[in-house]
Design brief:
The complex is a heterodimer of chains A (about 110) and B (about 120).
Chain A: E1 4-6, E2 10-14, E3 19-25, E4 32-38, E5 45-51, E6 56-58, E7 62-67, E8 72-77, E9 86-92, E10 97-98, E11 102-107
Parallel strand pairs in A: 2-11
Antiparallel strand pairs in A: 1-3, 3-8, 4-5, 4-9, 6-7, 7-8, 9-10, 9-11
Chain B: E1 5-7, E2 10-13, E3 19-24, E4 31-37, E5 44-50, E6 53-56, E7 65-68, E8 75-79, E9 88-95, E10 97-98, E11 101-102, E12 107-108, E13 112-116
Parallel strand pairs in B: 2-13
Antiparallel strand pairs in B: 1-3, 3-8, 4-5, 4-9, 5-6, 7-8, 9-12, 9-13, 10-11
The chains are: A mainly beta (about 110), B mainly beta (about 120).
């Protein structure tokens, strides 16, 4: 089955800097991916999604890049704020298979 | 739009006891999911419903876990008997789907934190 995983367990970033979270997937047939943010004590919250017919998608302060050749996607957060501190998951969207998560800690 | 509602918020039980969780999805969402999230890990899919039918329960420990969605709306997840390793957050999610593919991002509830002692 497919698996989705993240490279870095914890990312510490200075407030105002940009954050980049990486994710690899194993199933080349996967065509839909979702990034979630999970704050302590809450369920995962949808951030942004991307389908395989796109290489890049932008939202408010977030950008997702998809590289199908190497089966890699990333989430970029611009001007990171303290409220961005959370665990971020990438997920394969059709099966909603989650990776292990990446903790982002924003340093004021 | 109201979110996905789950109850109870917290539950502490002794091992070998039974427990049930309830989920009310977003109105009109045909697909409902139950996830188990152990501390420090990503959510793991337990079961997926499409309306009142089971789409995927391959990772549901059927010897002790059961779930139902009788009228295609609310759902309950039950554990009987509970084990220590069942301590986790149980998340419910729903989505508006078409032909097995989500049209929009899934919406999660806040979860039920289960502690088995």
């Amino acid at each position: 089955g497919e698996s989705v995983g993240l490279h870095l367990p914890t990312l510490s970033v200075q407030e105002g800097d940009n954050s980049i979270i990486n994710c690899a997937y194993s199933n080349s047939a996967s065509d839909y991916f979702i990034w979630y943010k999970q704050e302590s004590g809450k369920g995962p919250q949808f951030i942004i999604d991307i389908r395989s017919n796109m290489d890049k998608r932008q939202g408010q302060r977030v950008t997702v890049l998809l590289n199908k050749t190497v089966k890699h996607l990333s989430l970029q957060i611009a001007a990171t704020q303290p409220g961005d501190s959370a665990v971020y998951f990438c997920a394969e969207g059709n099966r909603l298979a989650f990776g292990k998560g990446n903790q982002v800690v924003v340093i004021p | 739009e109201a979110g996905v509602a789950q109850s109870p918020r917290y539950k502490i039980i002794e091992k070998r006891q039974s427990v049930a969780f309830w989920c009310n999805p977003i109105s009109g969402h045909a697909t409902l999911y139950w996830y188990q999230q152990i501390l420090g890990q990503g959510p793991k899919l337990l079961i997926q419903f499409q309306n009142n039918g089971v789409v995927d329960d391959s990772q549901l420990p059927k010897d002790r876990f059961s779930a139902e969605r009788l009228k295609g709306v609310d759902s309950t997840l039950k554990i009987q008997p509970a084990k220590l390793e069942d301590s986790a957050v149980y998340l419910c999610a729903s989505s508006l789907t078409s032909v097995g593919q989500a049209l929009y991002g899934y919406t999660f509830g806040s979860g039920t934190r289960l502690t088995v002692v």
